[in-house]
Specification:
Blueprint: H1 5-21, H2 25-32, H3 34-54
Length: 82
């Protein structure tokens, strides 16, 4: 899917359409999930302190697209890879 330009563009358009139809989704979500929101804000403050202290993103946080094109088999099937 990483190489499928049409799929990627379709997903982008669908996301944009959904966001336009639901502009207050996150505001309502936070209002309806107060304990989860508080917990996330506490974790965010901790992450921000770590990033300021170490000057980089801690290892335990994964980045989007962490799988490379060369290593995109996440099935665990190791046959034929020796």
């Amino acid at each position: 899917m990483q190489g499928d330009e049409a799929y990627r563009l379709n997903q982008k358009d669908a996301q944009k359409w959904w966001c336009e139809k639901n502009p207050d989704y996150w505001q309502n979500y936070r209002r309806n999930n107060l304990s989860y929101t508080r917990s996330n804000r506490k974790k965010l403050r901790h992450r921000n302190r770590c990033m300021r202290a170490f000057g980089s993103i801690p290892r335990e946080f994964a980045k989007m697209g962490a799988l490379s094109v060369q290593n995109n088999d996440i099935s665990g099937d190791q046959r034929g890879k020796n």
